[in-house]
Structures are given as C-alpha cells and as structure tokens.
Amino acid sequence: MANYFHRQLGYYADAHRDRVNSVMHMIGNPILFVAVVLPLCLLPVSVSGVQTSPAPLLTIPVLVLWTAWDVTIGLAIVVTSIPLLLTATNVYFRQAFRRARLATGSCGRFANIVPTDAA
Length: 119
What we know:
With about 120 residues, the chain is mainly alpha-helical. The chain has a domain at about 35-105. About 70% of the residues lie in helices and about 5% in strands. The protein has four helices and two strands. The chain is elongated, with a radius of gyration of 22 Å. The relative contact order is 0.08.
C-alpha cells in the first residue's frame, strides 16, 4: 500500500509541474476556498462571548497544520487565506444588510417616505 501511495504522489507531483496546471491552481483554488467558506459564514457561532462563524474556526487549525508541515508554504497560504476569508465575510454581511433593508421596507431612496393623512 505504501508503494502505491508513493507512486500516486509521484504522479501528482509531476502533474503539478506543468505551467498551465499551476496557473489554473492560482485561479481555481481561491475560488474554491471562497465557495467553501462562504456558506460557513452564514452560521453564527458565539465563542467565549465573541460572535463569529465556523469559517475561521475551521480554517485556523488547517493553517496551523500547513505551517507545521512547511513554514514557507504554510505562511503563503495564511497570507492568501486572510483576504479570502475577509471577502467571504464581506459578501455575507452585504447580503445580510440587503435582506434587512428589504425586511424593513427601506429598499429604495424614497421607500421610507410614507404619505400621511392630514386630518
């Protein structure tokens, strides 16, 4: 089984030396990261009185693990994942703000102006 694993790892490493594959990873991995993290931002979680989501709670251990395996790659992943986490959180809060505006009836510029009957 170990021989099979090493052979597969060799195939994987060979495939990732291709320039096109590297470019596709630079484009696709951030998109996949945000796609996975964005739904996690929808679940509110309170940790020691601090409101957060499962996204950073599940991401931080993975970042620590990558950094423990290889400091250079781990730190590169940390540096790139922070703006991606912030982007996913920003998308979530913008959508939440829009839903709140729709629920309160303040959809447009003049939506809060309600004619009153002068009696």
